[in-house]
Write a structure and sequence with these properties.
With about 425 residues, the chain is α+β, with helices and mostly antiparallel strands. It has 2 domains: about 1-15 and about 230-410, Enolpyruvate transferase domain (UDP-n-acetylglucosamine1-carboxyvinyl-transferase, Chain); about 20-225, UDP-n-acetylglucosamine1-carboxyvinyl-transferase, Chain (Alpha-beta prism), CATH 3.65.10. About 30% of the residues lie in helices and about 25% in strands. The protein has helices at about 20-30, 45-55, 85-90, 95-105, 120-130, 160-170, 185-200, 230-240, 255-265, 305-310, 330-335, 365-380, 390-395, 400-405; strands at about 1-5, 10-15, 35-40, 60-65, 70-75, 105-110, 135-140, 140-145, 155, 175-180, 205, 210-215, 220-225, 245-250, 270-275, 275-280, 290, 315-320, 340-345, 345-350, 360, 380-385, 410. The strands form 6 sheets. It has a 4-stranded mixed beta sheet with strand order 21-22-1-23. Strands 2-14-16-15 form a 4-stranded mixed beta sheet. A 4-stranded mixed beta sheet has the order 4-5-3-13. The longest helix is centred in the middle third of the chain and has 13 residues, at about 185-200. The radius of gyration is 21 Å and the shape is elongated. Mean pLDDT is about 95; it is low at about 115. The structure holds uridine-diphosphate-N-acetylglucosamine (UD1). Uridine-diphosphate-N-acetylglucosamine binds near residues 122, 158 and 162. Keywords: Cell cycle, Cell division, Cell shape, Cell wall biogenesis/degradation, Cytoplasm, Peptidoglycan synthesis, Pyruvate, Transferase. It holds the Pfam family EPSP_synthase. GO terms for molecular function: UDP-N-acetylglucosamine 1-carboxyvinyltransferase activity. It is found in: Cytoplasm.
Length: about 425
């Protein structure tokens, strides 16, 4: 349980952690080689633990020191990942392509992950099939075979982050070049491209496509994971909802353009300077309208925290979710805290109220948890948030980081 005594303006500076969503595919990239892969700036999170456990389970030796992970060995990769790990975290499914490319076969349970609507992997499989893989899906398991993958051009119906990463990973060891048309362009996908290039499979981006130049074998690399834009955005919103002023350092302001534009539109003071972003809010912000989209559009992962912020704005905000179906399962908990929020189809309508109130609420996924934390920081009483395991999947040292900004937060149990 996380307890928060709300109503204190947050002030100060917090350092951005490495990006969870860049670290996870980077760990999977290490499966492509037997040479050492060193990943720096890796956040300490349950999801990264799960990715590391998967790498170990299929044959890698892994050592962690502070925020650096060394992955090596794995001359003989096991073709099957433990079901429990893949079902716990959807990104584990990214091991399918690398293991298939290395060993010619791979068996992977269909993935789990956050409870945010249907999250199929059809685009992953359609793409890998075009590289020459054959599949047999039975009993919730995908059995994949491919003697040697062959590069080709794959058109994605939707710029899926996971499918683009899966195809870049598999294409890195395919014969010839693999081009993904209509790829995801999230900074975390681009970061994976940098790592694969450093390992020897050059990744080049063009206006509407990305190409990876497949190699017979790949080398090791040392790679620094980009800062977590979603974590950084969450702390900026924490400052904003409490009418304080928070600076995030070690961030990439250019990765947060969509959020910073919305915060400015709402009346917040936004300043960027090198790797530092400062957001301050005095008084009630104005309502804004937003819709989530693939990058560089507004990120779906910041939709719940932004709604929490808008819950105390002046006027009606509308937020349309176009990336995930039913990513509104936190709305009931926000309403319990006094927010005037209602879901209408794929849109949340938020009529800002003056004050939110403490309550006992439950986080159902990572970003729902972030929304409730923000609401609790602004609420006029004490809030107890259950489901803290979800929050620990995505936010390293959250209670300590919030305390560093002046919040009264404690974690129990
Ligand atoms: C990644 C992020 C997640 C973020 C999301 C969108 C990781 C570990 N997670 O998730 O935090 O919210 O990008 O920015 O990086 N889809 C299909 N078929 C597929 C694949 C996806 O229909 O084969 C759909 C999904 O159901 C969803 C949409 O495409 O509606 C976006 O999914 P995708 O971009 O693949 O997100 P993830 O990689 O799962």
């Amino acid at each position: 349980m996380i307890g928060i005594e709300g109503g204190r303006p947050l002030r100060g500076t917090v350092r951005a952690a490495g990006a969870k969503n860049a670290a996870l595919p980077a760990v999977m990239a290490s499966l492509l080689t037997t040479e050492p892969v060193v990943l720096e700036n890796v956040p300490h999170l349950l999801d990264v633990d799960a990715a590391v456990a998967l790498a170990q389970a299929v044959g890698k030796e892994v050592t962690w020191q502070d925020s650096v992970i060394l992955l090596r060995g794995g001359d003989e990769l096991a073709p099957e990942a433990p079901a429990e790990l893949v079902q716990r975290m959807r990104a584990s499914f990214l091991a399918l392509g690398p293991i298939l490319a290395r060993t010619g076969e791979s068996r992977m349970p269909l993935p789990g992950g956050c409870a945010i609507g249907p999250r199929p992997v059809d685009l992953h499989l359609v793409g890998l099939r075009q590289l020459g893989a054959t599949f047999d899906v039975r009993g919730g398991m995908v059995h994949a075979h491919a003697p040697r993958l062959r590069g080709t051009t794959v058109y994605l119906d939707y710029p899926s982050v996971g499918a683009t990463e899966q195809l870049l990973l598999a294409g890195a060891l395919a014969h010839g070049t693999t081009t993904v048309v209509n790829p995801a362009r999230e900074p975390e996908v681009v970061d994976l491209g940098w790592l694969l290039s450093a390992m020897g499979a050059e990744v080049t981006w063009h206006e509407d496509r990305v190409t990876v130049w497949g190699q017979r074998t790949l080398g090791g690399a040392t790679h620094r994971v980009i800062p977590d834009r979603i974590e950084a955005g969450t702390y900026l919103l924490a400052g904003a909802i409490t009418r304080g002023e928070v600076t995030v350092e070690g961030a990439r302001p250019d990765h947060l353009d969509a959020l910073l534009a919305k915060l400015s539109e709402a009346g917040a003071r936004v300043e960027t300077n090198g790797d530092r972003i400062t957001v301050g809010v005095e008084g009630r912000p104005e309502a804004v309208n937003v819709q989530t989209l693939p990058y560089p559009g507004f990120p779906t992962d910041l939709q719940p925290p932004l709604i929490a912020f808008l819950a105390t704005a002046r006027g009606r905000s509308t937020a349309r979710e176009t990336v995930f179906a039913s990513r509104f399962n936190y709305v009931g908990a926000l309403a319990q805290m006094g927010a005037q929020v209602q879901v209408s189809g794929d849109t949340v309508l938020t009529d800002g109220v003056e004050t939110l109130h403490g309550a006992e609420v439950e986080a159902t996924d990572i970003r729902a948890g972030a929304a409730l934390i923000l609401a609790a920081l602004a609420a006029d009483e004490r809030t107890a948030i259950r489901g803290e395991m979800h929050i620990a999947r995505g936010y390293a040292d959250l209670p300590a980081k919030l305390r560093g900004l002046g919040a009264e937060v404690w974690a129990t149990g």
